[in-house]
Fold:
Amino acid sequence: SILIEEYRNGRKIGYVIRDMAIFVAPCLNRPPVIEAPAETCIAAGSLLQFWVRAYDPDAGDSLYFYLNNGGQGFNGPFQVQPPATLTPNTFPLLGYRPPEAQALFSWRTACQHIRSRFYQVDWYAHDNLGYRPPLAAHRITRIYVVGPPPSSLTLTPGPRQVTLSWSPPVCRPDSYLIYRAPAPQAYADTPCCRSPLTGYVLVGQVSGNDTTFTDSDLEFSPRYCYRVRAMYRGSLSCPSPEACIQLPINFPLMTQDSVHTTDVAAGAIWVSWNNPLVLDSTFFPPPYRYTLERAPNWSGGTFQVVATGLTTTGYLDVGGLATATQPYRYRVRLIDGTGREIASSNTATSLFLTTQPRDGAVLLEWEQNVPWVNDSFYIYRADPPQPGTFVRIAAVPAQATGRAIFTYLDAGLTNGQTYCYYVLSKGSYGVAGLRDPLWNASNKACEVPRDTIPPCLPDPTQYTYEADCETYRVRFSWTKPDSSCGGDVGSYGIYVASVPEGPYERVAEVREPTRTYTWQGNGSLLFCIAITARDTAGNESPLGPPTCFDNCPVLMLPNTFSPNGDGINDVFRPFIYRNIRSVRCWIYDRWGSLVAESQDLNRLWDGLYQGRPAQEGTYFYLIEAELDTRERRIFRKAGSITLLR
Structure:
């Protein structure tokens, strides 16, 4: 049924109910089928061709196949210049009882067709018009026209830099985006080129008029690889083919930044580096000297000279280092016999280890920032009986360069015992002629395992309570938390607040196995109770979900009062009331005239009218009371009261 309501000037003036019958009958007819690509991409300037096929699965049915948006002014490729074509192009393509209908879609795309939004082609087919109803099929083909990528990418090495050059595509882009990776990266190319350039970072962008880019200030890497993409009106081209290069090693390379002594003020670090593999001794005459520089932490700060005139490729820095609290980074400068600086090295930072206590375990976290590739980290531990004897306990595989963080959880330990650790990294540049492998030690860090994880809360669905509206007392009960996460619970914290959002005040602590608590409200039940669980190690859980209570207002009025001055029942007032915030009372006689009005709950009417005693009889009252509840509520009551003298 359908209900129809009629309104006039906002007022309902009538309605009518209509019945609707739906007949469901068997249908032996099946709709046509359209075979066409759902989505495809094409580079501007290329020819896009594909066949579209439509057929009806019911033999003998007629088939009518249309191009929905052809010639209709929609956004399809048939509305641009040069337009797409469909062969044949007389609609419907076929009619009376064909085995199938086929058409060839062709579009010679051009630069002006590039856009981020797709072009849409709508295909439509239906069978015999004599059916009631005829069945139809609809399919959409989305075509993305992407800009062509740059080609012939070449790389030219320079001093700590690489210059890229490429051939521009046939369509002029708005800009070029340059991406770099530290090693060759596989790229799963697709026609739409939507696969991310995994392993690459964006290092630059130049205008569409430029075909070169210089990537400078490079740290040393065994190989640098590049790709370039063109940007057309917000649409990215496919990336260019990858090009890779290895820089000539004509500058020193850092190879070690290994902590030798761990201390808060008297630490030491062993630093070493590799001589340049290629050096023009005619232009830069010997003898050669190195200047070693140091800066604190991972970044920031100023490099300070540690040593000058070094003729070897190693140095123990004992310059009062706080190796227990921070890492240090180093670099060297190569000076020739005339005092000229030939080149500076890359930068390496010491491996820094921190620890965190866990219940019967220690969590190790170390951070690296090095120019080589670390492939393994070996963890060493000294146990309490032999605090100075370190034994390898684990190996963590890795393939990391630059800045990276690693973790390891050493479990099965005894709480309260002291365990000390350091991490030894194994790395390599992967270049012949350089020191390999590269070993670097972290600082030493000690930790005492202890329980730092709070227990889980009791199940809130198992909370029970008994609330007494008259005494404002609540007896609250709960169950013990699940043994898998709360087996060591020792006590429960009781918190009370006036509103669910808090703030909550801790009012009591109940020790296990007691799981009940009684809270006495101060003339109201407008409060919330929440609990926490605390384990024997002192870890306290977050506050559990609150359970909030509400008052139970009561307003009971007499039906008779006798204002005769005897001190008994002289005033009309409730004989029982509870949790009433405010009240307004109106007294009327039998003719509807207002006799009295009051806002005093204990004196709703004293039996006077205009200062004189009112006549005996029946009067009527209307009361509006604001209830003392969590949500503001107004209670309205109307009744009669008999006045007797």
Remarks:
- The chain has a mean pLDDT of 91.
